[in-house]
C-alpha cells in the first residue's frame, strides 16, 4: 500500500477550484486501487493534511496521469499559497485499530 500526503497552505478558493476538486475526487474514486482518504486541519495555522490511500504504485500513477489531475496541478498557484506531496510505501501497520474508521479506509 502507498500513502500520498498532500500538505497545503490554502489560499482563496473560487467556483472553478471546487468544480475541479470535485472532479478530481471522482477520478480518484473511479481509479482501481484507490482506498480512500483522511483529512486533518490545523486551526492555528490553517494548514491542511490530506492522506490518500492507494493499493499500488501503478494505481497512483494512473491517477496522477489523468487529464483532470494534470490540469489541477498546473493551476495550483491560483488556489494554494504552498503545497508539498510525500509518497510513502507502507511496510507494516499495527495497533488496536479504530473500528469502522480504521486506516486504511475501505
TrEMBL record:
<dbReference type="Pfam" id="PF13826">
    <property type="entry name" value="Monooxy_af470-like"/>
</dbReference>
<dbReference type="InterPro" id="IPR011008">
    <property type="entry name" value="Dimeric_a/b-barrel"/>
</dbReference>
<protein>
    <recommendedName>
        <fullName>Antibiotic biosynthesis monooxygenase</fullName>
    </recommendedName>
</protein>
<dbReference type="InterPro" id="IPR025444">
    <property type="entry name" value="Monooxy_af470"/>
</dbReference>
Amino acid at each position: 500500500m502507498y500513502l500520498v500526503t498532500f500538505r497545503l497552505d490554502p489560499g482563496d478558493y473560487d467556483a472553478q477550484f471546487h468544480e475541479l476538486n470535485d472532479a478530481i475526487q471522482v477520478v480518484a474514486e473511479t481509479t482501481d486501487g484507490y482506498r480512500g482518504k483522511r483529512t486533518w486541519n490545523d486551526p492555528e495555522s490553517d494548514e491542511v493534511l490530506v492522506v490518500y490511500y492507494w493499493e499500488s504504485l501503478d494505481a497512483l500513477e494512473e491517477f496522477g496521469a489523468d487529464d483532470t489531475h494534470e490540469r489541477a496541478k498546473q493551476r495550483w498557484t491560483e488556489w494554494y499559497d504552498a503545497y508539498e506531496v510525500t509518497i510513502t510505501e507502507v511496510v507494516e501497520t499495527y495497533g488496536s485499530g479504530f473500528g469502522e474508521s480504521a486506516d486504511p479506509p475501505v
